[in-house]
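From the methods appendix. Each design record in this collection lists the tokenized structure first, followed by the designed amino acid sequence. Records were kept in a plain field format so they could be parsed without special tools. The example shown here is representative of the layout used throughout.

RECORD:
FOLD TOKENS (315 positions):
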């Protein structure tokens, strides 16, 4: 009885495409949705064997996972890199082993772009710009375009391309506004606990914060608690304008309630696109070097509307 089972399994497994995934961690609600989308895409029914590794926010763990994927001779490596730098050596090892690497979500900065086959993710610079343009517009609509605006920024994980891009995009818009003062940009690590801690400190330090730019919803949840505890109010009718990123369900709900002003969407549903890339590679089709997932911005004005993004990805 048992021997027939033993024979059956490897034969079945032979046809599966083995994919090793190195995920950032479980720091945020967005990340859980992202992990879910990967697990939904690489199922047995779809013809995959998924080896999933959670790096718990440590690049050293990701490097270890990739080396283990290489020694297990997986067919593909999918990497969501915590930080942008430090990947040249291990990606070269994957390349030497003939294993294609597909990046998902965040990007790497490497000297040789042939070290990865493709990337699927968000346009982080564009997200930051969207936040900046919204604020510019918002001040104008209220006839307050000449007011001094004191801004604090809760940044995400240091060195992450999501943090770098959102910061760059927002700062591009901010630097041409004479009356916008960025008081401080602090590391909030994309977590609720750190977002709260840093926001409390900033509220203690500055009397008149007008705007908080919080680079993900989890930090926003924390920042809102800190604002409440400091006896201030946030959002549409509040003392402090709040700009958030990700637009997870709870974040969109805050826009709907007016507790925050805007949530710039970051679409976590990326697994299926990576799966499509792998299918295309299996079929010997040409693939693009970068694919951007569709995204939108949620504001008070449009939060009730249907999704206004087009389906599918752009290369
Ligand atoms: O915004 C944040 C998560 O890399 C886009 O990482 C991702 C970011 C996302 O922890 O919530």
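DESIGN:
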């Amino acid at each position: 009885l048992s021997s027939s089972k033993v024979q059956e399994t490897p034969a079945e497994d032979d046809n599966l495409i083995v994919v090793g995934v190195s995920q950032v961690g479980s720091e945020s609600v967005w990340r859980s949705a992202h992990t879910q989308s990967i697990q939904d895409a690489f199922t047995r029914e779809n013809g995959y064997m998924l080896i999933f590794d959670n790096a718990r926010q440590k690049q050293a763990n990701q490097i270890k996972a990739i080396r283990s994927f290489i020694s297990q001779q997986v067919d593909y490596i999918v990497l969501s890199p915590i930080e942008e730098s430090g990947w040249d050596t291990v990606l070269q090892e994957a390349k030497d082993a003939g294993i294609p690497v597909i990046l998902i979500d965040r990007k790497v900065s490497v000297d040789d772009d042939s070290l990865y086959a493709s990337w699927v993710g968000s346009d982080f610079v564009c997200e930051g710009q969207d936040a900046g343009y919204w604020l510019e517009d918002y001040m104008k609509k209220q006839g307050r375009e000449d007011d001094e605006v004191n801004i604090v920024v809760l940044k995400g994980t240091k060195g992450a391309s999501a943090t770098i891009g959102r910061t760059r995009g927002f700062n591009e818009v901010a630097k041409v506004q004479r009356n916008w003062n960025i008081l401080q940009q602090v590391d909030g690590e994309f977590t609720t606990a750190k977002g709260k801690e840093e926001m409390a400190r900033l509220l203690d330090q500055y009397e008149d914060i007008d705007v908080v730019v919080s680079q993900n919803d989890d930090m926003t949840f924390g920042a809102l608690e800190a604002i409440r505890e400091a006896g201030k109010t946030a959002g549409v009718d509040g003392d402090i304008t709040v700009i958030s990123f990700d637009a997870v369900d709870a974040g969109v709900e805050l826009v709907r309630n007016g507790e925050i002003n805007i949530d710039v969407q970051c679409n976590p549903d990326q697994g299926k696109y990576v799966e499509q890339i792998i299918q295309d590679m299996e079929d010997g089709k040409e693939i693009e070097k970068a694919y951007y997932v569709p995204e939108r911005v949620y504001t008070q004005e449009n939060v009730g509307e249907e999704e206004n993004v087009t389906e599918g990805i752009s290369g």
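APPENDIX NOTE: Residues 27-28, 30-31, 105-106, 162, 190, 216, 218, 245-246, 266 surround beta-D-fucofuranose (CB under 6 Å).
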